[in-house]
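so my prof wants the structure for this chain in the tokens format not the other one, which i didnt know existed until like an hour ago. anyway here's the sequence
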Amino acid sequence: MDKILIVDDDREIALLISDALTDEGYECLLAFNGEQAFSLLRSNPDLSLILLDIMMPDIDGLEICREIRSTISCPILFVTAKNRTYDAMLGFEMGADDYISKPFIVEELIARVKAHLRREKRSLQKNSNTMAIGDITICPESYEVTVKGNGVELSMREFQLLHYLFVNAGKVVSKEQIFSTIWGTDFSDIGTVAVNIKNLRDKIDSENRYIKTVWGVGYKFVKYQEKENEY
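here's what i got, hopefully its the right format
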């Protein structure tokens, strides 16, 4: 059974979400502040998904997301009244996978949860062979990434993005293609692709050897030996 952590200081909303997801067959854990959230995260390493409010009195959701993202690979969805584009982009920079504005339609929230869990399971069923390009090695089965033999921690979406670029190495892929493959069509802000590309470069390609921007088109992952200096 999929286990979902709901973090929201508004008990009424948290219970509403919990009741709706429980009716769908999910196991739900509730935290009403940051301290409770961290406690449940420590005792439940097998979480399938996290629903996280941003505005909380002790530790805000952005800080919680930033703290846990290096060790938690499951999808993190913000459910928050802060609905400006800036807030959404900041959430993605912290490692979130989706952003749902309050007030929300319960059926839509459930649909997004199901969509993320389906994509998660499909990702886990992908080819488990280790792949290597240059000094970057990835293992789709274990979600492990190494650069020059050193392990690198990526979020789930960052790993899926890297894997997609690996599979399409040498080809130019558009932001729309990346977005459709990794985030699906149930999300509306394609700008998250650029944010995740930036995060990925910071972690595995600080010298800009592999992930090349093809202006006006998208991105291309090249082998270092190709020395594509035109990008």
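also thought this was worth mentioning. The domain at 3-124 is CATH 3.40.50.2300 (Rossmann fold).
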